[in-house]
Amino acid sequence: MKKRIGFIGVLFVLLMAVTVSAQTKKQKKMAGYTISNYEVECMGTGMDGTQLIKVWGYGKKPDKAVYQAKKNAVHAVIFKGITGGKPGCMMRPLVTKPGAEVQHSAYFETFFTDGGHYLTFVSQSGDGTLDRIKVSNKQYKVGVIVSVKHSALRSELETAGIIKKLGGGF
Q: Could you count the other beta carbons within 10 Å of the beta carbon of residue 20?
């Protein structure tokens, strides 16, 4: 009887550990708009406040992977910065405040929805050729060169109150 109670106790502790570490539905949905280990590299900059970025995205179909890559490009400019590739891109992210993505989660959930507002700041660049790799039977990895409107994105985040305006600290 004591062994059975001990076994049930250990089982209960293990179940609690799994439950506590599991994500809620909302967290999973929010985490779905980007892949945390995406690859980006700078390809150059434009005169009108744009950055040319090569970015990789994953998807069940190549066209879905392209949309994911565009999300990843905008996410990188906002939260990670562009450190690899040719010089010229802004290495620092637009949002430098720790926890800002979680603090403004409602804004970013709508911003990064499929077909969301992020698409106004990113466009496919070049001749439209893609680097396509079939990772598995159900997943593609696609590399695409996109142009991100860095200055317009900065203005959008300033207007939304997520980042401070340039010169606002003086």
A: 7
